[in-house]
Specification:
By secondary structure, the chain is α+β, with helices and mostly antiparallel strands. Helix content is 40%, strand content 21%. It contains three helices and four strands. A four-stranded antiparallel beta sheet has the order 1-2-4-3, with helices on one face. A hairpin with a 2-residue loop joins strand 1 and strand 2. It is elongated. The chain starts with a helix and ends in a 35-residue tail after the last strand.
Length: 151
Amino acid sequence: MATEPVADERGLLLAEISNVVVRVHKRFYGKGPVRARAHLSRDLLTVVLEGGFTRAEQTLLRHGHSRQVIDSRLAIEETVGDELRAVVETILCRAVRSFMSAPDPANELQVEVFVLQPHGSEESPDGDVPTARLDGSSSNGKGSGPPATEP
C-alpha cells in the first residue's frame, strides 16, 4: 500500500524538526537526547526528547537536586529559545507565537512546545484572527459555528 505524498512530506518535516532540535541540544548542553519525536497538531508543535541529561545533571539528580537541574535547563532554554524558534519557522514556513520548555528530569524527558501562528493569519484583512471557543462563538465576534475539533 503506497503512502500518500502529503503524509510523507509531513513525516519528513517532523523528522527534520526532531533532528534540528537534537543538534541544538547537543551544541548547547554538551549532550543531546537519545530519542526525539515531533508532533504537529494544527497550531501546536511539540517535540518530546528522551535522555540527554549530562553526567553533572545526573549527579545532581541522584543527590536530590532536581529543582536545580530544572532551573538550569529552563535558563538554557531561555538562552537558545530564539534559535529554536528560528529553525522551526524556517522548516515549517510559519511564525512561532510562543515557545515553552518543560524538563522532567525524574523521567529523563524534556518537551519543547511551539505555539504557531494560525494558518492564514498573515492574510487577514483586519489583522484579527478568529479563534473557536468551546461555546461555538468566534473570538472576533464575526459569526459563530461549532467548536473546532481535531481531524
